[in-house]
Specification:
With 248 residues, the protein is mainly beta. The chain folds into two domains: 115 residues, Domain of unknown function (DUF427) (Metal Binding Protein, Guanine Nucleotide Exchange Factor, Chain A); 112 residues, Metal Binding Protein, Guanine Nucleotide Exchange Factor, Chain A, CATH 2.170.150. The chain is 0% helix and 51% strand. The two termini are 31 Å apart. The mean pLDDT is 95.
């Protein structure tokens, strides 16, 4: 259901959240609330939350669409997470009024059914398809060919441009330098990054890859990909337009 910019839907999975090794909430009736456009937030019915572990802080925050949030500290036997839960008791969105949400990074573990979920709640409308291909992929940076492959793996993810994952044997790895940057994705896992040096110019964190992706994305293990938004990519000899995304 839509309320202004906020979409609310009934979840279909059992969702649990833990702090300090203890379950804090466990529900088969969560709401999926798109507070942000890219992914939902889990909202738990009050009766499915161990409210005895929650203490009101007295602090509030006003959302134009959701109303006024009241914040709670969450305390388990081993840990205290400050301002880690919130509720919109007076929300103009009726579905939210008797529900509690938790700050993702403040909690220790999240599970959909019996599988752990990382980074943020999974969007039921996001799909990731990974397909082997024989298309000819060339990557050019500042006029230098950095990759040339006839064995790419194409990753199609809802809302993002196609990503071309290439074998390292087809990439000028001598131009790449590992960095300390890492990012995480709830669908693929934790990515490592490389910078690319062309002459005296260093292009920071332009390349990424997954050494040990989640099982559902195992096909891209050990491959590397370049930001379409920042390099010239030729597919079967045709230069692709650089897409405009949040990574541009």
């Amino acid at each position: 259901m839509d309320r202004g910019r906020v979409r609310v839907e009934d979840g279909q999975k059992r969702v649990r959240v833990y702090l300090g090794g203890e379950p804090v909430a466990d529900s088969v009736n969560v709401k999926l609330v798109w507070e942000k456009p890219y992914f939902p937030t889990y909202y738990f019915p009050d009766e499915d939350v161990r409210t005895e572990l929650l203490t009101l802080t007295g602090d509030t925050d006003r959302s134009p669409s959701r109303g006024t949030a009241e914040f709670f500290d969450v305390k388990s036997g081993r840990r205290v997470a400050e301002h880690a839960a919130y509720r919109y008791s007076d929300s103009p969105i009726e579905e939210l009024r008797k529900h509690i949400a938790f700050v993702w990074g403040a909690m220790d573990g999240w599970f959909e059914e019996d599988e752990e979920v990382f980074v943020h709640a999974r969007d039921p409308y996001t799909r990731v398809d990974i397909l082997a291909s024989s298309r000819h992929i060339q990557v050019v940076i500042d006029g230098v060919e950095v990759a040339n492959s006839h064995h790419p793996t194409l990753l199609f993810e809802t809302g993002l441009p196609v990503r071309y994952y290439l074998p390292k044997l087809d990439v000028r790895m001598d131009l790449l330098t590992p960095t300390d940057t890492h990012t995480a994705c709830p669908y693929k896992g934790t990515a490592d990054y490389w910078s690319v040096t062309i002459g005296d110019v260093v292009h920071e964190n332009l390349v990424w890859g997954y050494h040990a992706p989640f099982a559902e994305s195992a096909k891209i293990a050990g491959l590397v990909s370049f930001y379409n938004e920042k390099v010239d990519i030729y597919v079967d000899g045709e230069l692709q337009a650089r897409p405009k995304t949040k990574f541009s």
